Amino acid sequence: MKQGFLWGVAAASYQIEGAAHEGNRGPSIWDTFSHTPGKVLNGDTGDVAIDHYHRIEEDVKLMVELGVNVYRFSIAWPRLFPQNSQSIEQQGVDFYNKLIDTLVAHNIEPVATLYHWDLPQYLEDKGGWASRDIVYAFEHYAKTCTELFGDRVNKWITLNEPWCTSFLGYYLGIHAPGIKNAASAVAAAHHTALAHAYGTRAIKAVAPNAQVGITVNMTNLRTDSDDPETKLNWQLVDANQNRWWIDAFTSGKYPEVLVKEYGVLLSQVFQEGDEKLLKVDNDFLGVNYYCDGFVGKARITDRPMNVHSPYPINRTANMDLPETEFVSRTDFNWPITPEGLGNLVLRINRDWSEIKSILITENGAAFNDGPNEHGEIEDHRRVDYIHSHLESLRHAIDLGAPVDGYFAWSLWDNYEWAEGYSKRFGIVYVDFDTLKRTPKLSFKMYQKYIAQTRLALNS
Ligand code: NOJ
């Protein structure tokens, strides 16, 4: 870790803001989805979330206390453009101005994600990410955000985890908009990649010195077999989750193996000239890492795919990790594989020479520990999780991986999408009834880790 390393925390609009009906905010696909019975655990919605909308001062104070120098947040598209893609809602602009100004006043650099899954419902009604029109709507939205906030925001992330947008949203249907259609999912995978390239160019046209990247969710895929069928599945799953968006912006080409697999599903949305449009220079790659994955022979004990089990169309790649392979798991049942973070950034460095800078834009774990009799939250498992991932990263950086920042997910416990409020990822505990915030032990550990690393670098 060099001087100037970015130490941060991350969060996203729908997961924390609440105030769903304030400031003339329009409905997003997550409002519709979460209010549809049976879609989200316990019927939880983001209507109130952790009420960050009304608590900017208090929440930024926590960041100051923690000692971070960057905060990654997302802009809610339906706050800025609640009714249509033309008329800007001033109250939405005021809210983000207040947040950005408060951060800047405290020397915390704002890092803005443009799209973290809360698509305006009116855009979904026109086909959402399955329709090419979304690319041009996103381009306009990216340009507008840069004009509004680009004097203070210099780091932009176009899209967060487009794999989830495409495959959880349009194929498995377990995220908004809840569609289960292979053609829509492949179309969304193409349109998110295109939107990223259009968005990057739109930002740079307004602010040539802005730093722009995309955030992808990546994993290392372990395997216990090298039979040809498993090998092919490995390549497909790897291409589907790890390579698609990176290959697109670095080379304008999708992985051959998937082009073949998707066949007509892709060719019917891929227009002539798209190769040129997909390719774009970026300043960094954002990587969200939670755990390693597994591709092997189908076993009788395999459960159906879970949130972190990507698989390509028409394949039954088995993504569950064998019970015996990992000792511990989080309360989300995700395996804990800290060495994977280091391995992953080394792989990126090896495979894509175009990528000169990596930001770990999310890393963290769901552990549901609550307050003890003294009101303290001793989340030792999260302390171990974050600490071991940071050490793995440090080792990879020493070996040459170009990593320039790390953002813990998340500062606060918040709304975990289809899991509602049942999974706590925060280093700050939130009482979901009173909305009181209490830093956990992991907050103190991260605070100390940042301070000690800074000290060592200065000495
Ligand atoms: C990825 C997403 O970007 C974030 O919104 C989510 O809460 C975390 N991972 C944990 O699942």
| Order of the strands making up the biggest sheet | 1-2-3-4-5-7-9-10
Number of distinct beta strands: 12
CATH architecture: Alpha-Beta Barrel
Q: Please, what is the CATH homologous superfamily?
A: Glycosidases
Parts with pLDDT < 50 across at least 5 consecutive residues: 300-319
What separation lies between the terminal Cα atoms? 14 Å
- If you average the pLDDT, what whole number results? 93
Beta content: 5-15%
Order of helices and strands: EHHHEHHEHHEHHEEHHHHEEHEHEEEH
Q: Which geometry do the CA atoms define? A: globular
CATH topology: TIM Barrel
GO molecular function: beta-glucosidase activity
Catalytic activity: Hydrolysis of terminal, non-reducing beta-D-glucosyl residues with release of beta-D-glucose
Protein name: beta-glucosidase
InterPro entries: GH, GH_1_N_CS, Glyco_hydro_1, Glyco_hydro_1_AS, Glyco_hydro_1_beta-glucosidase
